[in-house]
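Cross-check.
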Amino acid sequence: MRTARFIGSWLAGVIALALAVTLFVQWLRFVLDSAGATTPMPLLLGMALGVNLLVWSLVGAVRLGDDTVRGLAARRAARGRHRALAPRRASASAEAREPVGVEAAEPAGDRVSARSRVSAPNAGSAGGPAALDPDDTLPAPGKSAETEAEGHADTPTAGAAEDAPPLSLAVVIPAHNEEPVIGGAITSALRLFDRWDIYVVSDSSHDATADIAAETGVNVLELLTNRGKAGAIEAVVEEFELTENYDGVVILDADTELDSGYVEGARRQLGDHGVAAVAGFVVAEWKPKQRTVVGRMISAYRDRLYWLLQYLMRFGQTWRHTSVSFIVPGFASVYRTSALKAIDINPKGLVIEDFNMTFEVHHKRLGRISMNPDTRAHCQDPFTLADYTSQVRRWTLGFWQTIRRHGIWPSLFWFALFFYILEVVIVAVLLLTTALLGVFTAVPALTGGAVLDIDAYAAGYGAVTAVLPLTTILVGLFVPDYILTCILATIRRRPSYLVYGLFFMPMRILDAYLTLRTVPQAWTLRSDGRWKSPGRAAERL
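Predicted model, tokenized:
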């Protein structure tokens, strides 16, 4: 059965690739045949793919080469240090075998590392750690048992400077009525972190979110009033003094599950002291049996969107010579605590926090934004079109609100952001206009030409089709977009994407409408940040 699925997945990839090549050849032939006409094919291609995507893809290719060269150099340097330290380690080992005094020969096992006992929540406070078994003894926050034991060694080993203890990380999981998924998120975090380093803040949940979290033995803070995600993060950071006890803070959504290499990747990136924040690499879940047809379409659409934005845009934007990414996604992000101290996490009037926290890093020059595929995390996308619309509206409104709050300042960040905003607005306007024109030119075919009996309609139809016939709209706009879907179906080896991809253009039109709709709202609405969680699936990844 497994072999059949393997063969089937590869066969699906081949079919998707063949379809992509066929469509590209036909699209190119159509473009060449209409080269002398007045049809705006370059404009349609720009709307389908985007100039920013092309530019940052080229920058990302340069970064890939730079990272490869630097990685090879680092490995050679590490091998050189290893060879240089080998004689010293051998000498130290020989000395250790020689007879020593009784005092020096005291067994290492006699040294006892002090551990703080985690007690029940403080009297009269809802912010203490979750109660544990009285026999449990735990190291101080931010230190694993191994790290604390090493800290009591009398003298460092020969390679102590090279083998520095790993950066300590706290995990913050803000949640509001997340009963179906909070257990899965905590279980995922417990695979990579000690339970005393995990902090769940229940933002006035009316379900069993806090109780489920407490049963796992992690620290739980329960807020009695709904403060919103940003307010919840601010509260738990202050209550447990996380910026004083840890080197970094990981912020996870309640529906996020971390990849096994997430912590190692985050620590590796934070090893560069110029990095202030690490952006998680989002992977859309794919559980088709849990979803309706609409839910599968949303998940497939998001998978394509994430792939394009991360590999073809943000990878280039987070190069060490650029660092102009305008978003550290809040679903799985890591902030160095020295930078987090300077960030205004919860300013008034914003609907979401992640855009603002990212802008704070850039505006206050706290360091670089880093992103690599080694910090993967899985997220659960909306199941219904209503939840999807609500989520996208929050995201776009939060983006424009953040721009309103921070304004413009001279920087490479704003130089890149200006052209991104310019393209987003222009493409949104053109996409909506083209969609309306497409409907306008399709009506005669749907009505058997009856509407052409109306003189005004016939005149408008003739003017539009002279420049932008329906065939040109479909071939010039839909086909390049669908080719991207075929490419992703090849990479993912999911033939169903070829079906769901037929509806991606309407999803893009919806996104364009919400983008433009929220621009004036960002200057007229004042949000309190309170949230309403979308529908969740209890069965996790």
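The chain has two domains: 8-50+419-524, 58-71+120-132+166-410. Residues 58-71+120-132+166-410 form a domain with the Spore Coat Polysaccharide Biosynthesis Protein SpsA; Chain A fold (CATH 3.90.550.10). Passed to J.P. for a second look.
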